[in-house]
Specification:
By secondary structure, the protein is mainly beta. The protein contains one helix and nine strands; from the N terminus they run αβββββββββ. The chain has a nine-stranded antiparallel beta sheet with strand order 4-3-2-1-9-8-7-6-5, with helices on one face. Keywords: Signal.
């Protein structure tokens, strides 16, 4: 499974010629979810976002089928923060084909203020809402930068 996540991360980096000074990638694989996300930020003031993409697999059988496997892009990144050893990402995906308004919210918080960001860890929060019972999960995330 980690090979899949690593392959996806490498593929994302190879397919986008972003000129980011820093590229971050985070992944998690536990009983609730498997995901990988990648983002790139400029080095200049403001740390403008160059790109964002990822893939998410919800392992619960209770999750709506349309939300069990999704791909996310910069359009789904609602908030981002990269400063002094901290990385924070908030992703929201809404199933546009479903009139019931099903959606996924993923928040990644990683790093430690003032510390190196070569490899670091953190936590994720996942929430699924829409048709049926709402689902939520939390867990650990592993991240790195290039």
């Amino acid at each position: 499974m980690y090979r899949t996540i690593l392959a996806f991360t490498l593929l994302c980096g190879a397919t986008n010629a972003a000129h980011a000074a820093t590229r971050f990638f985070c992944s998690a694989d536990d009983k609730n979810v498997r995901f990988t996300v990648e983002s790139g930020f400029e080095a200049e003031g403001g740390h403008k976002l160059n790109h964002f993409r990822g893939a998410l697999v919800v392992k619960s059988g209770d999750a709506p089928q349309a939300l069990q496997k999704i791909a996310v892009t910069s359009e789904n990144l609602t908030h981002h923060w990269s400063h002094d050893g901290e990385l924070r990402l908030e992703v929201f995906y809404e199933d546009g084909d479903d009139p019931k308004g099903q959606g996924v919210s993923l928040i990644v918080t990683a790093g430690q203020r003032g510390k190196s960001m070569t490899t670091f860890s953190g936590a994720y929060e996942l929430a699924l809402e829409g048709d049926g019972k709402p689902l939520s999960a939390t867990g650990k995330v592993s991240c790195g930068s290039k």
